[in-house]
Amino acid sequence: MTTLAVTRGKAYFRLAKLDIVDYYLGVVVVWTLLAPMSRFDPGVLATVGVFLLGEVFVIAAMVALDDLTGYRDGSDITNYSPDDARRKRYRKPLVAGTLNEDQVLRFAWATGVVGAALWLTAIAIAPHSPLWTVVLIVVTYFFSLQYSWGVKLSYHGFQEFFIAALGWALVLAPYGLATGEFTGFALAQALLFGLGPLLFGVYSNTNDVDGDRRVGRPTVAALTSARGNMFFVIGVSAAELALILAVPALGGPWWFPLALVPTIVSRGWQLWLGFALGDILRARMLGIRIHRLTVLTLVLVNLVVIT
């Protein structure tokens, strides 16, 4: 393999953000939500596996189109300026010059088509295909590709909602295909899962506020004052806490909030780190770790409860 091919392969890997696995962890939560007899059922495993593979391609298309839009409007060039050593330019192949616009656009459409085919296959082979699940998958696919392209949801004030809603859908959809059910406990875990990416995304938006304002991308951080944005992030963190406390009423065990104490404590530290100490990017990185910790906790809780 030539050096050029290796370099190009790395560029596409970074374009697809394949090192950021946090949305993909949803299928692990789904698998542990299943009854023990279903966890190793061939049909269930095939369905969840194909859905996960489709998810990888759909998200690759979504983030590639987001990079292309961010490059064209100049926000990525501003946010990943050469003098900001903590924002790694090589993670943005267009900004780094390792891919051009045509290559990124072709990659986005190719991965989008493959992702659609895989999700249709998952629906076709699934043990269950309730209408709400099929509609959820179709809507998720459509709006994923419209996040920064086409209608550009993230440029019309829907960015924060979409980041969370994508996580909710990526738990509920495979769960519906595998079980045909919609339970309060599964819904609660889907909501918690979706808040994880949101609670590191809002710290990214806080850091990127100047670039987003310059191109008119209406994130909460860009639309409000620094103080208003801080209260928004505090509010989202409080909503996560309220949801954790409400899980026993939604079908979870009484001790569920105790199991999530590490998440609760870590959120407090994240807020202090980001807004009291002013280290937004460290708070963002901590948010990624908190999300993964929460997923691990959900998995362990499910393995204990669902037997």
Structure, described:
- The chain has 16 helices and no strands.
- By secondary structure, it is mostly helical.
- The protein has one domain.
- It is globular, with a radius of gyration of 20 Å.
- The model has no long low-confidence stretch (mean pLDDT 92).
Describe the structure using short key phrases:
307 residues; mainly alpha; 75% helix; UbiA_prenyltransferase; Conserved putative membrane protein; menaquinone biosynthesis; prenyltransferase activity
Chain-wise SSE layout:
Elements: H1 3-15, H2 26-33, H3 36-39, H4 42-73, H5 75-79, H6 93-96, H7 101-125, H8 131-145, H9 159-179, H10 184-207, H11 209-215, H12 220-223, H13 226-246, H14 256-259, H15 261-276, H16 280-305
GO molecular function: prenyltransferase activity
Membrane topology: Multi-pass membrane protein
Transmembrane segments: 21-38, 44-65, 107-125, 131-149, 161-178, 184-205, 226-248, 254-278, 290-306
Short description:
With about 300 residues, the protein is mainly α. The protein has helices spanning about 5-15, 25-35, 35-40, 40-75, 75-80, 95, 100-125, 130-145, 160-180, 185-205, 210-215, 220-225, 225-245, 255-260, 260-275, 280-305.
Q: Helical region count?
A: 16
- The total domain count is 1
* Class per helix and strand makeup: mainly alpha
Q: Give a short account of the largest sheet.
A: none
The unreliable regions are none
Radius of gyration: 20 Å
In N-to-C order, the SSE pattern is: HHHHHHHHHHHHHHHH
* Binned strand content: under 5%
Q: How much helix is in the residues?
A: over 70%
- End-to-end span in angstroms? 49 Å
Number of strands: 0
On the 0 to 100 scale, the average pLDDT is 92
Shape: globular
